[in-house]
Specification:
The chain is of the alpha+beta class. It has eleven helices and 13 strands. The termini are far apart. Bound molecules: adenosine-5'-diphosphate and magnesium ion.
Length: about 350
């Protein structure tokens, strides 16, 4: 006989490995609502991301990897606010009950939850097409959250890690991307080591929680790169009432990306690809030195890719100072794709 809804919750989502016994969680899974105490000097940062099968992860993907990706992209939003993870809820929609699937999913989930000390405090289950809706809650000392609306003209623009790996990963898994048919890997299939690197980048993006905490005081505004650098940076521009000038010759790429993708497509992947979950931050000129030192201490690579200027949009230049056209926009769910 298949498990009831309550058996599933008890067996897979009420385990100590997910509840984590945090002092702020007064009451977790099992009542009509969870009860949380938030320290009075903190603000609560709340964010939700929904992942739908075949839109956000391929059909038939490993449940542990789906869980990791679902929680990691949510944690990335907390990182972008400079918040410390506290707890999360999980809305899970599945077409059928598979204990094998649930066991792998909850194991993947608890591994990442423990690593980032974020407690599962509730959720909901329903039948339907596989969908995972997570809401994360984090704390940030009052007045210190990293926001999109506070970039200043003259600030330098930095990005963590490398860009473009998310969309290159989709192509490496043989899946269509919103960059169209012209976006292909040079060598198909890619070398095994590159394929593994991309899969890991896609399913296990590293939320920049510690980096954001370590560098918070030197950052004027921040966003995580989920829809492509140009689109995401445009949000900073819109909210801050500024423009941004990017130097495309400074965009950072992984060795695997360089190995597998043409130069033109590398730039498209970074600018318009998405799914990278790096942080893009702005830093006032007089704080750059401290910022770089803090990033280095945190062992996070950062690249200076441009600056905040007067205006209201993102513009692109080459290192030689030539203008480079902004071609496309970021990933949008309700946009009809090209070719
Ligand atoms: P209600 O009917 O009052 O909404 P449910 O019966 O749906 O409550 O859930 C019972 C308890 O189990 C609640 O505390 C709820 O938060 C928790 N829960 C339900 N689904 C999940 C899930 N997928 N993960 C974690 N907790 C869950
Ligand atoms: Mg319910």
């Amino acid at each position: 006989m298949s498990l009831s809804e309550f058996d599933i919750i008890k067996k897979y989502f009420q385990a100590p490995s997910l509840a984590l016994n945090k002092p702020e969680v007064v009451l977790g899974v099992g009542d009509d609502a969870a009860l949380i105490s938030v320290p009075s000097e903190d603000q609560l940062a709340i964010s939700t991301d929904v992942l739908v099968e075949s839109v956000h992860f391929p059909i038939g993907a490993d449940p542990a990897k789906i869980a990791t990706r679902a929680l990691a992209v949510n944690l990335s939003d907390l990182a972008a606010m400079g918040a410390r993870p506290l707890c999360f809820s999980l809305g899970l929609v599945l077409p059928e009950v598979s204990e094998v699937w649930l066991a792998k999913f909850s194991e993947g989930l608890s591994e990442l939850a423990q690593r980032f000390d974020i407690a599962l405090i509730g959720g909901d289950l329903s039948r339907g097409p596989t969908t995972i809706a997570i809401q994360v809650q984090g704390t940030v000392p009052e007045g210190t959250a990293l926001r999109r609306d506070s970039a200043q003209i003259g600030d330098a623009i930095f990005v963590t890690g490398s860009l473009g790996d998310g969309v290159i990963a989709l192509a490496s898994m043989g899946l269509p991307t919103h960059l169209g048919n012209s976006f292909q890997l040079e060598s198909s299939p890619p070398a095994a080591k590159c394929k593994e690197y991309f899969e890991n980048a896609y399913f296990s993006p590293e939320p920049k929680i510690e980096f954001a905490q370590a560098c918070s005081e030197f950052i004027s505004s921040a966003i995580d790169v989920s829809d492509g650098l140009v689109g995401d940076l445009s949000h900073i521009c819109n909210r801050s009432g500024v423009g941004a000038r990017l130097n495309i010759d400074k965009l950072p790429f992984s060795d695997s990306a360089r190995c597998c993708v043409s130069n033109a497509n590398l730039i498209r992947a970074a600018l318009y690809g998405g799914d990278d979950y790096q942080l893009c931050v702005t830093v006032a000129q007089n704080k750059i030195e401290d910022f770089l030192r803090a990033a280095q201490q945190n062992e996070t690579e950062v690249s200076c890719i441009g600056e905040i200027v007067e205006g209201d949009s993102v513009s692109l230049r080459t290192g030689a100072g030539d203008n480079w056209e902004v071609e496309e926009t970021a990933y949008q769910h309700f946009k009809v794709s090209k070719d």
